[in-house]
Amino acid sequence: MDKIGLGNYFDAVCDGNEITHSKPDPEVFLKAAGKIGLAVSECLVVEDACAGISAASAGGFDSAGLGDAAKDKNVTWALNTFGDLKNIVK
């Protein structure tokens, strides 16, 4: 994120280099929540892939899905556009 000038917009980053299990395992989301000290109930997973929605659901996270992920049976909120997030994020 720092290389592309986005580092200051994130409190923490968690990626595949820090986890053992890939999505649909919730490990990446649980680790990210832990890094920023938030409970699962305080987080929202935004995804464009069904595997990510499955991971969010398995970890107990609310989720917002775009594209194919918006059609997933486990998605909390289906989004038509990324801009729709403003209607659910407080």
TrEMBL record:
The keyword RNA-binding does not apply. Keywords: Carbohydrate metabolism, Magnesium, Metal-binding. One of its GO terms (molecular function) is metal ion binding. Gene3D superfamilies: HAD superfamily/HAD-like. InterPro entries: Beta-PGM-like, HAD-like_sf, HAD-SF_hydro_IA, HAD_sf. This is Beta-phosphoglucomutase. It comes from human gut metagenome.
